[in-house]
Write a structure and sequence with these properties.
With 296 residues, the protein is mostly helical. It contains 13 helices and no strands. Helix 2 packs antiparallel against helix 11 and helix 7 packs parallel to helix 9.
């Protein structure tokens, strides 16, 4: 997901995010250094704020004040970036000067031509009239009066001016753009629309890695729509089909989390064991060991 898509989640703690949002945020933070830094700074401010006494306005207003201060800092960075001098400012005066010079040159040429007498129109003799076309020769008499005349070629067909022109086929959205649209719909909890768009992305012939992300999103959509059985099947399908991608690790751990949430202890233990056997030093290895220890 893009930086804009996860911006509303950077200031939130892990407990306030559902499983699908957490996985999407973790995947994005693994590849975006800027968002990792923003989240680290927000967590630092939140930690400092929790260590201080809560003012009379209450904890909610205190958190709002912290978020507002962070936002103002962001806006100050943007204003500072916009205030920096640009090296291309000399281009505008040069273009304006060139335009004025060109206009002055054209005006001088037009004035010079208007002052010249039209001598060519006075001295040039009239053009000779074109010769009259020669009469067409009369057709020779036919030897056999009963022979039918030779057939004439059909007249050239005029183009149908009322026929609509052939329209070029519309350019289809790429699989990557469709995936981004499906993620926005999923974030807005429009699960039916998100699933339809994700299936369109699969039909657009995505790459192997992109197909893994699309199937991962379909599993998250099923989980968000309250279909845990479908979600587990889709998560394990991603883990088995796309073993060579980063989405496979997230999918296997997400399937275990779904089983834990609905208290399917045996299924959750099996999935956690599978995860640790495949990814002993993975991104969720510590969490998986902690949750597995809690099941014994």
């Amino acid at each position: 997901m893009s930086c804009k898509g996860v911006a509303d989640w950077l200031h939130r703690d892990v407990e306030s995010l559902d499983e699908a949002q957490r996985l999407v945020l973790d995947d994005h933070l693994a590849s975006c250094a800027q968002c990792r830094g923003d989240r680290m700074r927000m967590q630092l401010v939140r930690g400092l704020g929790q260590a201080l006494p809560v003012p009379p306005a209450g904890a909610r207003e205190y958190n709002r004040a912290i978020a507002k201060a962070l936002l103002e800092g962001k806006r100050a960075d943007v204003r500072e970036e916009r205030a920096r001098p640009r090296r291309v400012k000399w281009i505008v005066p040069v273009i304006a000067f060139a335009g004025v010079a060109a206009a002055a040159t054209v005006a001088g040429v037009v004035a010079t031509r208007e002052d010249e007498p039209a001598l060519e129109a006075i001295e040039a003799p009239p053009a000779p009239a074109p010769p009259a076309p020669a009469p067409a020769p009369a057709p020779a008499p036919a030897d056999d009066p009963t022979e039918p005349p030779a057939s004439l070629p059909p007249p050239a067909q005029e183009p149908d001016r009322h026929r609509s022109p052939t329209l070029a086929p519309t350019h289809r959205e790429s699989a990557a753009k469709l995936l981004e649209r499906a993620r926005r719909e999923f974030a807005a909890k429009a699960f039916d629309d998100a699933e339809t768009t994700a299936n369109l992305a699969l039909a657009a012939k995505p790459t192997h890695a992109l197909a893994a992300e699309i199937h991962m999103l379909l599993a998250e959509i099923a989980q968000g729509a309250g279909k845990p059985d479908v979600a587990v099947d889709r998560y394990t399908g991603v883990a088995d089909t796309f073993k060579d991608t980063a989405a496979a690790e997230s999918a296997l751990y997400a399937a275990a989390r779904v089983e834990l949430k609905r208290r399917a202890t045996a299924a959750a233990r099996t999935l956690l064991d599978r995860y640790l056997a495949r990814y002993p030093t993975g991104r969720y290895a510590d969490d998986a060991r902690r949750e597995l220890a809690g099941l014994h």
